Amino acid sequence: MAIRLKVINPNTTGSMTRHVGEAARAVAPDDVEVDAVSPAMGPVSIEGHYDEALAAIGVLDEVRQGEAEGVDGYVIACFGDPGLQAARELATGPVVGIAEAAFHAASFVGRSFAIVTTLERTLGRARDLVDSYGFSRQCVAYRACEVPVLGLEEDFEGSYEALRSECLRSLAEDGPDAIVLGCAGMAAMCGRLEDELQIPVIDGVAAGTMFAAALVRIGVGSPSRGEFAPPLPKRIDGILRPFELNGGQ
Ligand code: 2AL
After folding, report:
1. Ligand 1 atom closest to residue 43's alpha carbon, by position in its atom list
2. Whole-number Å distance between alpha carbons of 113 and 202
3. Which residues line ligand 1 (CB under 6 A)?
4. Helix, strand, or coil here: 15?
5. How buried is 23 (Cβ within 10 angstroms: 0-12 exposed, 13-18 middle, 19+ buried)?
6. What is the rounded radius of gyration, in angstroms, for the C-alpha atoms of the chain?
7. pLDDT tens for each residue of 118-164
8. Ligand 1: nearest atom to the Cα of 47
9. Which contacts qualify for 193-197: CB closer than 8 Å, 24 or more apart?
10. Cβ distance 71 to 42 under 8 Å?
């Protein structure tokens, strides 16, 4: 049976969603159908805690719809993994965040990795994720190339140069065994960077797609009891009313 994966770009920029879909399809096996989507509401890019809190709602909306459509697994394609734990409460199948996927991939190929991301202000979130996922010993550096998320598409070559320079500084000063790219919008730069740097460079969109497909194939999904059991039924007020589950009962 074909595996249906929903790859969610949590921001609302359609061109980035298309690129994320291309990155996922480039690695997905023939029996994996990739549906790349972005939420109907939310910020055009995610570069801070406010953006992320709003984007998480859109992610949950997509997972809710995916469950009604029989989706087998999900990838949350933003490096802050917005809404990941909540999405697991909604989903039957696996939900994989690209930051989490990239850290795991890096840990398979070396002792240490460096994260090179977009804006410096997003590094606190990266640190929190590394700590909470248990990768503090492996992550030896947190770096930013100071290109905003949408700038990655607006000036691809200039952004590539900024990213490449920061990666080279990291190799010289931090000595990681691998580089983890800190934004879904960097996916198209991964192969070229790896060729130039001669070190594993990990794009979480590719890693997350393959991990999610593998989990579906081996029959591993979200837990249905305990912390990740479906949300408790309750009334939800105000503009979030459409998120009430089972009529609040
Ligand atoms: C991201 C990302 O992957 N998508 C987005 O909108 N922002 N991450 C980041 N560090 O800027």
Report:
1. 6
2. 10
3. 11, 45-47, 78-79, 117-118, 122, 149, 182-185
4. helix
5. buried
6. 18
7. 999 999 999 999 999 999 999 999 999 999 999 999 999 999 999 99
8. 11
9. 193/160, 193/163, 193/164, 193/167, 196/164, 197/164, 197/167, 197/168, 197/171
10. no
